Amino acid sequence: MEQEVVEAEIVLPTHLSFKRIQMYEKYPKSQSRSRHWKHLKQILQAENYQNYPPDEPTYVNIESPPSMHPCKRICDVTGYEAPYYDPRTNLRYANAEVFKLIRSLPNDYVQRYLALRNAAVVLK
Amino acid sequence: MPFISQIQRQSDFNLFPSTTPIVIDNGASYFRIGWAGETDPRVIFRNIVQRPRHKATGETVSIVGDHDPALLKYFDCTRSGPRSAFDGNVVYQFEIMEYILDFGFDRMGANGAEIDHPVLITEGVCNPVQSRSKMAELLFETYGIPSVAFGVDAAFSYKYNQQLGVCDKDSLAICPGFSTTNVIPFIDGEPVYKGSCRTNIGGYHITDYLKQLLSLKYPYHMARFTWEKAEDLKMEHCYIAPDYASEARLFQKGTKEAEDKTRSWQLPWIPPPAEEPPSEEEIARKAAIKEKQGQRLREMAEAKRSSRINELENELHGLEFLLQQLEQVEDDDIPSFLSATAYVSKQEIESARQKVSQSLRKTKGEPKGDQVEAEEKIDLAQNEKFPLIDIPDNMLTPDQLKEKRRQLFLKTTSEGRQRAKQKRYESELEQERKNQQDEEKRLENPELYLEQLRDKYKELSEKVEQRKRLKTNGNHTNGNSMSGAVGRGERLSAAQRERMRLLTTAAFDRGKGEDTFGARDEDWQLYKLMSKDNDDDDEGPDQEEAELTRISSRLQEIDPTFVPKSELGTSQPVEVPRFRPLTKEDFQIVLGVERFRCPEILFHPNWIGVDQAGLDEMAGNSIRRLPSVGQGVEERLTNSIFLTGGSCLFPGIAERLEAGIRMIRPSGSPIKVVRAVDPVLDAWRGAAAYAVDPLFPTQTFSRTDYFEKGEDWLRRYQLRYSL
């Protein structure tokens, strides 16, 4: 290790005296690095919230409902109010200038703009 | 710097008695750890872990938090980016969590056999039991911590500010955090989670949105928009517009106000060295070089021309000599004599001589004339050779009749030739006159004349070039010809393609409505156009080419600087694509609408595809979710809306929130929005103040509790915030 790296102590020591079980004991290198954690979705599934009393607050039921306000549509490129919508690219746009721009955009840029609001075409 | 890390190793760990709790604010963006009862956390760092490979040794190491990028050059970070233990506001990867806790305790100065202090650690609202129990397990088993308490960060921040008198006992806490935004109603100083709600949007999404928008807006500078830089820009420049639509309209109209609100970030840019006008000497030197080159080219052209003339003259002499010899040779010996040469007959030699002399003239730049003379001679010889013509038919024998018909034919052709000669003579005269006029003009104003001649030369040569190009491949008009695409269409000449077009249109026109083909006479012209041998050209180009050679030879005579184009070897002017020189403005990142568009997603999560209510609506939802309490409570809640969490630092958020909540509450409701003293650190401070309370141990649970009471108990475990 380089001198300045050692001095800055940015690398976490592998052995720490205050630990009862060291990292290398818990996650030995020889063992296959298979996943030993669950995604949040899997965690929530395993919680079996359906068995809980209905009025008990849980991680799932405290989520906000969808908005009841009419959705404000903004231009995907400029952020201005967007009265128009281009059926070819599915982008919303504010005026003719932006329209010209979006029609000249390559498809991957269009998809990236759409991905910003989670509307891109996703191939599975 | 957006990330203010504080990672000096503390030395006083062992001075604290084992009853002093360690307080951890385990937020999705920052990890803060310190001692209960103190005002500030001892160690703060970003809640991320990187596991790069050390370049020199090749071993994988763990690096927790943010560090000087200069130090990271020794590591190969390409295979693994920074990782977080969080998914939303829930810890799910406990391996990463362990690295973080290791680093935190290590920097706190722990060096004993275990961490012998109670721990108060924060978690999200309604944290799933699995995450909670894993965290407890980790703390108990790995670090030997005697007892643990879990609390909600927003609640600690609320408690802290309530004690400071910022907010009331009944209050609605709105906490826009890093990955989620929570609204928690507090009644009598205790959170009512039943009435809380969570939208999965936070500072992370704002930064990401800004980063994406900027990299889409400035694709050339995409590499500049690192996560850290975007976070920096967000914290420095973003604000919440009082009314998004009207603010955006300001920018759309390009008003002065909007201009004032626009920020621009100048990327490092070095102006290209300004092109100084070349000095006199330089110009002179260049001109001299050019002149020299031109001189050389002209000499070369001249040498080429003279050598060609020489060659042709030699050939001509040879042929003339051959002819002379041929005259001396006996008629019978001619075939044997000729077999020694490459010619078969005398005529062939003569025609070859003629050709050579013609091309000699052409190279010398003289007008055609020899041919005419030769023809004249023949004509003269042939004149008066038609004795039978004037004799009436009935006086002739059949043989003579035949002869007469032949003579008649010859006569008409020779007359025709005579006429043509006459015409040619006239045109020659015309040419002569023109030449004379030319000469006069030249003498009159040599400069202008030269200019005109040059123009004409240029025009003609371009025309000829174009024609040539059209003939070989006609698609010079469409710039793609340079791209090297050689499909069938590209290989055909313009005329051929036109023919193809005609054929296809004719073929596909059938059956489309009424067939009126042939009704008009012009229709039949189509076949003429379609016919295959249509594409051989008229005499036009030849004339033009002749004119071109004439002018070029004339120019060569009178203009010492003239160089014929074909000698230069450039068949067509090559258009070099011109790049606009990059200016300072190309290296400016302009933040206009983005300044308020990005944080606006807190109020309109659907702009980034999250179909949930925004901040203002959440407040309404939260109040509605509360179990039926008196009217007074609702009013008391709205009268003390408390903002905390890192993403409430945007200027204008309180005003906007007030306006938004006013819209959804009954008219006349008292609405007051207050912000935490320090929205970022108050959660830790509140927790530290809470943990120092003598009643704190009643809220913790030990390892034995954890194992004896079971999961169901852990699920219902809840801290009482008012001790």
UniProtKB/TrEMBL annotation, chain A:
The organism's taxonomic lineage, starting at the top: Eukaryota, Viridiplantae, Streptophyta, Embryophyta, Tracheophyta
Organism: Carya illinoinensis (Pecan)
InterPro entries per UniProt: INO80C/Ies6 (IPR029525), Vps72/YL1_C (IPR013272)
Keyword set, alphabetical order: Nucleus, Transcription, Transcription regulation
One GO-annotated biological process of the protein: chromatin remodeling
Localisation: Nucleus
Primary localization class, coarse: nucleus
Domain of life, source organism: Eukaryota
Protein's UniProt name: Vps72/YL1 C-terminal domain-containing protein
Domain Vps72/YL1 C-terminal: 73-102
Gene Ontology CC terms: Ino80 complex
From TrEMBL, chain B:
Cellular compartment(s): Nucleus
Keyword set, alphabetical order: Nucleus
Disordered as annotated region, ranges: 355-374, 410-447, 467-493, 531-554
Chief place of localization: nucleus
Bias kind Polar residues: ranges: 472-483
Compositionally biased intervals (Basic and acidic residues): 363-374, 414-445
Transmembrane segments: none
InterPro entries reported for this sequence: Actin (IPR004000), ATPase_NBD (IPR043129)
GO CC annotations, alphabetized: cytoplasm; Ino80 complex
UniProt feature, compositional bias: Acidic residues: 534-546
Record GO biological process: actin filament-based process; regulation of DNA-templated transcription
CDD domains associated with the record: ASKHA_NBD_Arp5
Keyword Nucleus: yes
Annotated family: Belongs to the actin family. ARP5 subfamily.
Record's protein name: Actin-related protein 5
Record organism: Juglans regia (English walnut)
Taxonomy of the source species: Eukaryota, Viridiplantae, Streptophyta, Embryophyta, Tracheophyta
Gene name of this polypeptide: LOC109008570
